[in-house]
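Report of the visiting student (M.T.), summer placement. My assignment was to run the structure pipeline on a short list of targets and document each run. The first record concerns Diguanylate cyclase domain protein.
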Amino acid sequence: MNDFNIKSQTHILVVDDYLDNLTLLTMILNNLGYQVRQANSGKTALKAIEQMLPDLILLDIQMPGVDGYSCCQQLKTNPKTQDIPIIFLSASNNAADKLKGFEVGGEDYITKPFLLEEVVARVEKQLILKWQKNQLKQELKYRKKIEKKLLESQQILTQILNTCPDGIAVLKFIPSRPHKPAYFYCTFINSVMENLLKPNQKRLINPKILKNSLDIFDSSLFDYFSEVVKTGHPFEQDLYYENSEIKAWYSVKAIPHGQGILIIVRDITDRKQCELILHQTNDFLYQQATTDNLTQISNRRAFDVYLKQEWKRAKREELSIALIMIDIDYFKLYNDHYGHEAGDRCLYTVAQTIRQAVKRPSDFVARYGGEEFAVILPNTERIGAETVANSIQKAIHDLQLPHAQSPISSYITLSIGISIQIPTSEDFIILIQTADHALYEAKHQGRDRIQSWSELLE
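After the run finished, the structure tokens were exported:
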């Protein structure tokens, strides 16, 4: 309050019917830098206050007409003037007079004749108190405004969280202590999460969420959540959840939040169902793309993919790989005699018989083209390949499919060529060429026989 600019903006009203007192007080306060107005009666003072509100009033008690007590009472009952501090001036040192002054609303009481230092001290004290009260009011007003905005924000946030399709919860982490395990406790949960947790709410939504509390979802979930708190790294995983009312897939995300975690749970059942349908569709399309429609075994495209894959594996592991090429003897004569429908049935029967004769899951049977078939045998040497070839040929012989036009037999027969290689390059064409050459030799030597490429080299 010692700042000159502040004092020059401070207005003090001095009310006294005694001119000497008015003059003296005005001079003192003017010298201190205050703006001072004068009034010689209570009635005049009230009019002056109506024209401009002062920051402080020095008010004499004993005045004709409206005395100081009455004037003070009127001012304190008026909302516009009730906060103006009033210092009574009186020649009476009577305790009852002082008490009455405080009862009607006065803030202070100075006895005449007054000491100048006392007047200055009491004036400045009341002005400081008023300034502090004004500051407090402004702060309270500001706080109320902020609190209102905060309340509105909280209401909006609560509405958003409760209408959000995701389940949301806030868990605070309490580290382990001697003889007491670590735990979480829930500080917030929205309505979606509440509905999700039924009928497990009583078990889960309580001050302490222990490790076994989360076993209803996943036995490792507590450890995952604890790790988020320790490392600050988010956690996300798809979980299947089931209770008496719900069977669904959920995406569970946990992110660091203060001394705990914020959990967001989203229903992804529809997405999972779409993924399943897409996966099934892709499987179906893949099967369609890699299956020969007529024989229902793998087609040439699938053969090329699988042979390339197994050739690379054999080269990497320095293993042998065998290829069996199979051709139905005199199939054109069969078609010409029995018709194409019978020919298609024959191809299907032969293909399925070959597939059944090949036992290992890693072995691969495909229709190579026309009446020609191929069998890929990973990690197989000559004896193993010849054993498989013999099993195939025997199975076809056992079928005894009639072939009246065959020059070599009354039944369907096969010519078979075998090649076994240990890959030394990326190109697997050598395996196909040598197997095909062995097949050609089997046909050239009279058909209905098995020919190995390695035998041709001996």
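The domain at 4-136 is CATH 3.40.50.2300 (Rossmann fold). The chain has a mean pLDDT of 89. I thank the supervising group for their guidance throughout the placement.
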